[in-house]
Amino acid sequence: MSDTIEHHFKPITHTFLDKEWVEGFTIYYKSVDGGKTSFLIFAQYTPEDYTRLEKIMKEGDRQDFFIHENDLIRYFRECILVRLRRGLEKDKPNPLEVVRRTYPVIRRILGDYLEYDISPRMLRTMDELPDILCPLFRNEVIPFPALVSLTLKDPEIETHCANVGMYSLYFAKILELSESDMRDLFLGGLFSDIGKKDFPESIHTKSELTSEDWSTIRKHPSSGRKTLNDMKCYSENVLRMVIEHHENFDGTGYPFGLASEKISLNGRISRILDVFDSMTSERRYRKPVRIIETLTEIKDGMEGHFDPRLLTALFKSFTHS
Fold first, then answer.
1. Distances (CA, A) of 247 to 8, 241, 255
2. Residue 244: alpha-carbon gap to chain centroid
3. What is the pLDDT of residue 321?
């Protein structure tokens, strides 16, 4: 049996084989015949086949192997997320440890979606993460410096999205938002840069960007909103946060040049957090900036970009952390 290139596949190695995923999955290999690409079934994996298939897949002269996105989605829902929940229920860790365990799951899901030819259905695997994190942030005190210290600082898109999502939970806490609004803020942060999925690789590696490159970059908020809107399962608050996270409070941002309260609350929050994470993370043109230096630059060196009342709330919370 085979599947066509029109379906979505992710390449895997022997390290993907998981003894705890008892449901198993289908392993494919790629076949090209007369210019037509198909994915043919290589084997059905179950934990009983672990040793045999691991040996085969580790052999250097073997072809590449793949998993279909349907099985990949099941894997995250039925194995990774179940394992996460069971571990949290069993160990009852402190709030920072809950964040530490959840964070890599978020990055992994976003990373697979952004890197491979996988449909936006993949994003739905994160639907239950707000159920874990929102009550935690509403009911517990998680200091901002401690939260920032748990996040990675690499330049990957999935890291930036995961960081903005996590910092959004903190912002929702200090603004005393409802759990529903906190959920929207969290998801909007996680999805803020998914519009960069189809960017040319050169944009991520160039030392200097051309005007054409900047034109492409400026399309990512609209592209991200369209992706989520087409899914018809996310609120307008989430959609506006994704499309407005580069709008400046003084009207100099993009894509619409909105100003002041014409930018949604979520959009104004995400503008602050987008810049904060970019400055405190590694970029191709500079090293990460320390938290206090970043906040000082945001306050004193970027006048007009941010809602001053939201900045005040963030600074007050930080000084009391």
1. 34, 10, 7
2. 17
3. 57
Residues 80-92 pLDDT 10s: 999 999 999 999 9
Alpha helices by DSSP H, listed for the chain, are 50-58, 69-75, 81-91, 95-115, 129-139, 144-150, 157-174, 179-190, 201-205, 211-217, 220-231, 236-244, 265-280, 291-300, 308-319
Of 135, 137, 182, 188, residue with least CA distance to 165: 188
The residues spanned by each domain of the chain are: 1-68, 93-319
Q: What's the rounded Cα separation, in Å, for the pair 61 and 135?
A: 49
User: What single DSSP character describes residue 79?
Assistant: I
pLDDT in tens, 208-245: 778 888 888 899 999 999 999 999 999 999 999 999 99
Cα dihedral angle (310, 312, 315, 319), rounded to 10 degrees?
-130
Q: Which CATH number among 1.10.1040.10, 1.10.3210.10, 3.60.10.10, 3.40.640.10 corresponds to the domain 93-319? A: 1.10.3210.10
Cβ proximity of 156 and 120 under 8 Å: no
Cα dihedral angle (185, 189, 195, 201), rounded to 10 degrees? 180
What Cα–Cα distance (Å) separates residue 310 from each residue in 43, 180, 191? 54, 19, 21
Amino acid letter, 298: I
d(CA 219, CA 50): 44
What is the number of alpha carbons within 13 Å of residue 176 lying toward its C-beta?
0
HEC per residue, 160-224: HHHHHHHHHHHHHHHCCCCHHHHHHHHHHHHCCCHHHCCCCHHHHHCCCCCHHHHHHHCCHHHHH
